[in-house]
Protein 1
Amino acid sequence: MPESTLIHLLIRKLENFAELTEEEKVALHEAAGPVRSYGSHEDLIREGEHAHGVSVIVSGFACRHKMLPDGRRQIIGYFLPGDMCDARVFILKKMDHTISTLAPSSVTTLPREAVLNITSHHPRLTRAFWWNTLVEEAIGRQWLVSIGQRTALERVAHLFCEVYVRMQAVGLATPEGCELPVTQSELADTVALSTVHVNRTLKELRRVGLVSMSSKSLVIHDLAGLRALAMFDPGYLHLEGEGLIKDRYSHGLLKSL
Amino acid sequence: MPESTLIHLLIRKLENFAELTEEEKVALHEAAGPVRSYGSHEDLIREGEHAHGVSVIVSGFACRHKMLPDGRRQIIGYFLPGDMCDARVFILKKMDHTISTLAPSSVTTLPREAVLNITSHHPRLTRAFWWNTLVEEAIGRQWLVSIGQRTALERVAHLFCEVYVRMQAVGLATPEGCELPVTQSELADTVALSTVHVNRTLKELRRVGLVSMSSKSLVIHDLAGLRALAMFDPGYLHLEGEGLIKDRYSHGLLKSL
DNA sequence: CGATGTTATTAACCTGTGTTAATGCTCGGA
DNA sequence: TCCGAGCATTAACACAGGTTAATAACATCG
């Protein structure tokens, strides 16, 4: 299996849960449809529509977001390269939120039939999909806590920690930092602050020597300090290979669910 | 099948997704373990622990919540009578949040084996479980939008609309209102406001004649007005029986996942 | 039925973040 | 090379909501 293919990063991410066999990797590769390229602020799928497959971000950056009738917007999740959006889409009639790119992105789609095929023939892969879903939910809960309880500074710091660790998990981070192709106003919609206050907050993070953002990327100067400020505990990302432990509990459930 | 048994309300709720056969209902009833009674602020399961089954709230009121190291707390979800907490618990090693009662509650547990049995023999029931999970997630996304973008007044109003509709879905609401056995300080931790400001906000909602809270219950004076103020659109609760439509898409996936 | 703790209410004051608006950057396109 | 449009940055000011603290209303329980 070549080291760099379309869904190389997805595989890399899933392997944070459990190692995949050659056969499973092949199955994933075969599932991938053609790649589509999107520009910088295009919708992959809109609120109210019905999804027809599972999209995988090959490269770029995307998000889920919801808008209130009067235009206020909240970004409720980021999609990094290797992320899937999303496996549960088959059951509910309509999307209750919109998914859009935040940067030029390549996206491949695992068609519905391919996903069905994988989930009926590859229980371990299925379990990895499920794990991925659960991690996504855990991230959502963290965002709720952040927005509800953390100060502006902590909130931005926490988001940066999360993005950095998630980028690491797919090998897209260096010790110095990682890409974060997002404008300040998009950051504002993410952490529920005004654009102006995001700017002030970034300035402060720079001043105290923790992180800085330049030309759409994150430069980490003091990861330990950033973590401490954010009270960041990466446990919720479940990145320490729980596959083996899981096996004992989930085999039957996953096969049948 | 008797009209009022332990998991009567769970069944009632699941039937918002699709009607269940007599056989499926029996299977659910047989799955239910003994009832446990909890007092008012007891933990059902704590962050870091591993869950051993699916708990169903028979009566009472509970919540998921997370605490920051310094004591700030965010409630990230409510469990009403009939709610399950929660079906996905089998896969991840540890809970990333705590579940506690907010009022005296009776809780029954579907043991792991019983859930496995149901999910392997009753695909439609399985699908209903899944639907339930997806609705829970959609609720989480709404809370994120609320806390991120809505004002205090809108936030509280939106929460009240949601609770009222969810209580209706299990037959626990009257045209006048429903129970909401939660203190103002717990409300504060829910909507991410201070206790004092929750009090101010309730006063204002009372003053304009929309809702009032007295002795742990919600008295709705003007539902239309409340909805309008909150910009509440119940669509995300997916309560209009999507079962039939779903069947076409999800059968294979659900059987195998 | 009073003692005690919890919850609700209110007032006065404070602050973190929002708003508005002006200025300056940066980068892709003609 | 210059233009234009979106971004970033900053300052001045406004306000929603937080904090503190005091009191009042309820429960619960001997």
Protein 2
Amino acid sequence: MKDITSKLINLFKQGYCTPQIARIAKKIKEPSTTIHYNIKKLEREGKIISYKGVFDYKKIEEGHVTFILVNLSDDNYGEPEGVAQELAKDPRVESIDICTGDYELIIKLRTKDIDEYYEWIKNTVHKFKFSKSYSITSLKQVKTEFVELK
Amino acid sequence: MKDITSKLINLFKQGYCTPQIARIAKKIKEPSTTIHYNIKKLEREGKIISYKGVFDYKKIEEGHVTFILVNLSDDNYGEPEGVAQELAKDPRVESIDICTGDYELIIKLRTKDIDEYYEWIKNTVHKFKFSKSYSITSLKQVKTEFVELK
DNA sequence: GTTAATATTTGAAGATTATTCAGTTATATA
DNA sequence: TATATAACTGAATAATCTTCAAATATTAAC
């Protein structure tokens, strides 16, 4: 066993996919060279960043979703971007936004289970000196990354 | 002008992409047939749902992100799934979860601007009889769909 | 521990698809 | 209206995916 699947999952999380030009050409009834031209244009303009996989996260041990609202400590309050970019490096962080309202950050985190979540939040609160955080746990994911789940 | 790009964006939002087997094979130094076999296995097992595009949403007129926490009316409180699945059909809804805590739903919505957001929330509150909602606006997207933004 | 069944890996061949290129048509600009 | 630029497209080529059959490895049963 070479455990290729876990490597594949990591690659597909961010990219290593490509458009199906021939299939699209059939679908919208245009020549494949026209489709090709328009896709390259979207890429050139930077409108398309990447092509990636979407998973049934329960089946890949990432079924536990938590939204975490964060207050930063006084030290980091003025510049949340550095903290956010650091957190963004964690592959379990699906999204992170700097936001309005009572909290400065909103993080969408994917872990295997509540135990892994607990470890993550404990370590992260300590490391980044969050002054407060409020976690909302997903009970059921109905749609993710624009893809409806069945 | 045939406006092919907007059709492409819609298709890539949910799929119409495919893995780059040859590129992956080089990357992890395994034969492409082995990569092929393992990908098909992941698909067969339902671990991979789809391959899709990720966009620079500001450049495609979807740069305004809002997280909306929702309380349902008494009518819908007991069965939030129906409401969630209905909302999931909207292409501007990136994700929707049924959740713990003070609110029953958490929606991640992408609109062109705050005006489109206002129209959406006004219509949706009315249509689905939300008893209360709390919106958090993203000021800066640092990471989305597991992809770091620059 | 041996055997049988099943799953994974792999190279070679064929089928399909992406890409390049050159020419055409359409759109925008002066 | 003339000119420049952008968008579209068919034909040929290059690259990739997919199938297949055989080898190897893993698992299960006895």
